[in-house]
């Protein structure tokens, strides 16, 4: 996470999830937006404000990426009712975030991550 090797993926995941929760809020369901704001604040408090070592940040960052992927997959399952294509894209995008989250977690102690 510190080396920003997967930073672009994390920013894309956060942006995608923010778009999903904003659409839910515009439809009258504000709970996902509040949950996202709590998640976002917690994530950046842990990763950006606490004096953690680079190794600790590399351990926590992929976990947050996997949680973002789970959130997008949950929206994907809910999206199958409106559009099958939209649901499939959300499920695949969330699965990619989870995959790269676990990939970042498995490579955090190797030379490839630096």
Describe this structure in words.
- The structure is a single chain.
- The protein is mainly α and 114 residues long.
- The chain has helices spanning 7-26, 31-49, 54-79, 84-106.
- The chain is built from 4 helices and no strands.
- Helices cover 77% and strands 0% of the residues.
- The mean pLDDT is 82.
Question: What is the gist of this entry?
Answer:
The chain contains four helices and no strands.
The poorly predicted ranges are none
Strand content: under 5%
Class by alpha and beta content: mainly alpha
Q: Helix share of residues?
A: over 70%
| Shape, per Cα inertia axes | flat
Number of helices: 4
Largest sheet report:
none
- Please give the number of β-strands: 0
Mean pLDDT comes to 82
Give the key terms.
114 residues; 4 helices; mainly alpha; single chain
Secondary structure topology:
Blueprint: H1 7-26, H2 31-49, H3 54-79, H4 84-106
């Amino acid at each position: 996470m510190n080396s920003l090797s997967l930073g672009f993926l994390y920013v894309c995941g956060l942006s995608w999830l923010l778009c999903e929760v904003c659409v839910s809020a515009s439809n009258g369901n504000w709970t996902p937006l509040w949950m996202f704001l709590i998640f976002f604040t917690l994530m950046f408090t842990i990763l950006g404000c606490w004096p953690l070592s680079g190794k600790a940040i590399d351990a926590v960052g992929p976990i947050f990426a996997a949680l973002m992927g789970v959130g997008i997959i949950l929206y994907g399952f809910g999206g199958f009712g409106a559009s099958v294509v939209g649901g499939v894209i959300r499920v695949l995008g969330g699965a990619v975030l989870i995959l790269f989250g676990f990939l970042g977690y498995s490579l955090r102690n190797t030379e490839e991550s630096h």
